[in-house]
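As a warm-up, study this chain.
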Amino acid sequence: MTDIITPDLCDEFPDVQVVAPGFRNFGGIRAFGGEIVTVKCFEDNSVVKEQVGLPGNGRVMVVDGGGSMRNALLGDMLAEKAAANGWAGLIIYGCIRDVDEIGRTHLGVQALGTVPRKTEKRGIGDLNVPVTFHGVTFHPGHYVYADNNGIIVSEKPLV
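Now compare it with the structure written out below.
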């Protein structure tokens, strides 16, 4: 894959959507991108857990956790499973935990922050529905690219 540098992609493709700032890079892969798979959940990562167990095929899971800062939607075990199953990364509108381990995992991870508390598993969440946060709507099948400069979204692949 070509290097992902979001400022260069913005210059080359000025119509991309730019996600408002606020996300931090936590994964072992600092720049990543791919086709979007969405999960909408609130303080319950059951659907995230199911999805990381499936082949990722270089896709990026965009998780709308409602911006909750109370529970972590991703920890080291799920991150390791996602990496082993070929996910390019996860962008989480919420928190993660086990950041030191996730930083050593071959996976792109961006999130709002960290919190040590895990979620309850109630089996609640929606898969592949449009989700909106930080000024952008993420559609399943569109493409997302992320690095230390920010996150951008496109209807078509850019790299």
